[in-house]
Amino acid sequence: MLSGQRREFRLSYRCGDSFFQMTAAWFTHEGAAHVVVAHEDVTELASARQDVRDIAGRLLSLQEDERQRIAADLHDSTAQHIVAAGLGLMRVQAAAGDHQNVERAVAKVRSSLDEAHREIRTLSYLLFPPNLRANGLAASLRRFVEGFSERTGLKGTARVTGDVDRIQPEVQRAILRVVQEALVNVHRHAEASKVSVSLRRDPAGLHLRVSDDGKGMPRKRTKATAAPASLGVGIPGMEARIRQFGGTMTIASGVRGATIRAFVPLHGDTAVPHLLAFGTEHDRIELPGSPPNLRVLPDGNDSSIG
């Protein structure tokens, strides 16, 4: 820093049950280089953020349970009512005989019921993906994308490289849920014909990419997602899942579709939660919550499929 090669330095570390942060800033005065150093106890801040992370994890877990319940209700109850309505229409058509007006009206209603049945089956599948614990992340991801393609008619591809089945189960679940939510958005809004999912593990961590060739995200919606993420469905929920493990997420949207990229750092075979990712000497590590973890690029030039 005194040589001017670095302008700032930040070190966060743990000592016993306490957390501390040292920051240094470089400046010049009367032609000479100086460094001002500050050291502070951030135990309360780290503890508060750990509490927030724990609450966020519990809320996401509750959200997941609720989604599974809704998916089961759609599949077991609502879909059955639609099937029963279709059978009732068949009886109405048989009783009407050769009356063409009745037959045309029944045909329109039946078409609407068939479409509603397909939509419910698709959404119930998207809300309740394959068994992660039994199949592992790689197989679950491939099966999920395959099932998505079968139910929606979109051409979906999934590519997984690296050993992703040995990472922390909570991280596996978060990755699968992010893909799940991304495909729901593609199905509902993108008007796409193709979607690709890529998950890669390297020494730094997990790299996830979901892209489609649809119409992209409207600018007004893109601006809304640039606000601080909160728990909930859609993009804020996706970002919250990635952020709880110290990861980042970016969205690039343009005329060739939208691309979501997420990165989760890994240490060994597990992911270190953001609130506990304190560094060692000479590392520059930010305390959690300082920079925004979500960047939205409304006019991205990323190739949407590949």
UniProtKB/TrEMBL annotation:
Superkingdom of origin: Bacteria
Keyword annotations from UniProtKB, A to Z: Kinase, Transferase, Two-component regulatory system
Annotated CDD domains: HATPase_UhpB-NarQ-NarX-like
GO molecular function: phosphorelay sensor kinase activity; protein dimerization activity
Boundaries of every Histidine kinase domain copy: 175-268
Pfam families per the UniProt record, alphabetical: HATPase_c (PF02518), HisKA_3 (PF07730)
GO CC terms in record: membrane
InterPro entries linked: HATPase_C_sf (IPR036890), HATPase_dom (IPR003594), His_kinase_dom (IPR005467), Sensor_HK_TwoCompSys (IPR050482), Sig_transdc_His_kin_sub3_dim/P (IPR011712)
Disordered as annotated region, ranges: 287-306
PANTHER family linked to this entry: NITRATE/NITRITE SENSOR PROTEIN NARX-RELATED (PTHR24421), SIGNAL TRANSDUCTION HISTIDINE-PROTEIN KINASE_PHOSPHATASE UHPB (PTHR24421:SF58)
Protein's UniProt name: Histidine kinase domain-containing protein
Organism: Microvirga aerophila
